[in-house]
Amino acid sequence: MTRGKKTETPDLPLDDDKATSSHQEGAAAPDEPDKLEELTTLVKTLVQSQASRDKLVEKESARQDQRWKNLQHQFQLLQTQVKELKDDFETRAEQEEDDDDDVGEGADDVQLAMPTSYGPVPPTQRGPILQKQPKILPLSPEDDIEHYLMTFERIATVCRWPKEEWAIQLIPLLTGKARSAYVLMDFDDSEDYEKVKEVILAKYEITAETYRKRFRALDINPGETPRELYVRLRELFNKWVKPEACTVKEISEKLILEQFLRMMNPEMEIWIRERDPQSAEEASRLAEVFLSARSGRGRPNFGRDSCFS
């Protein structure tokens, strides 16, 4: 029997469940920062998206407010025009009533001379002509310059503005390239509407040659009716030839000139057009100059299919 001897207890392995739990906790610890970073990124994205939507809503709201202000302004202009028309009609009615009273009071003392025929009433016997000043919006970058000028001319015609005042009425409405074209005009020509119109269209690269090409084109606009096609061709021809300002001989010369150039060699045609001949006879002299400067042996062919070396 041995006394004082201690009994050693062997080390026991850890429980399997506790070991597994410790391992999972250790593995989960590094994943928490990644999830936090991902959540932060998501929140930032949502905030940015919301800010973008807020900006779009604010921009659309501003656009609607501006549109509403424009509508209010146009409505006020219409109200002003209606009021002016009403006042004019009332004034005219009062004047006519006063005239009738004057005639009635003097009918017993004055023997009126009755006309022997029922011709047109002289201007002095007519009532006052209302020449209203319609509200024409200034030229904007989105406007078609040809349509704008055509609208202006029709309004001026309906309102019976004297032709010599058209330029004065148009100038305050010009903006951008059109205004710069007017500013660069010769002062003596700045009151002539036709000359003002010509330099404005030239600034937009619209000339008689432009109208000629459009007139000769074979394209029909989408949805265009035969009647609309006829009106368009008539306007293009008038803008190209300007028959109201030309004699029959001058119109004939323009048509002959066009056919003459269409038969020329393309190189010669461009050279002649650059010198802007006003008649076919002048164009033929320019063609002779062109050929004499390039002729070698013999007479070169100047037809459409020919070429110059």
Task: Walk me through this protein's architecture.
This is SCAN box domain-containing protein. The chain has a domain of 63 residues. It is built from 10 helices and no strands. The protein is flat, with a radius of gyration of 43 Å.
Task: Jot down its keywords.
single chain, 62% helix, mainly alpha, SCAN_sf, SCAN_dom, SCAN box domain-containing protein, 309 residues, disordered N terminus
Mean pLDDT: 75
Query: What's the story with the biggest beta sheet?
Result: none
Roughly how much helix do the residues carry, as a percent range?
Answer: 55-70%
Global outline: flat
Radius of gyration over all CA atoms, rounded: 43 Å
Q: Which residue ranges are poorly predicted, with pLDDT under 50 across at least 5 consecutive positions?
A: 1-7, 106-130
Structural class: mainly alpha
Annotation, overall tally of beta strands: 0
Order of helices and strands: HHHHHHHHHH
The quaternary structure here is single chain
How many H/I helices? 10
Percent in strands? under 5%
Terminal CA distance reads 137 Å
Question: Helices and strands in order, then pairings?
Answer:
Blueprint: H1 16-105, H2 145-158, H3 166-170, H4 176-183, H5 193-203, H6 208-216, H7 226-241, H8 248-262, H9 266-274, H10 280-294
Helix pairs in contact: 4-5, 6-7, 8-10, 9-10
Short description:
With 309 residues, this protein is mainly α.
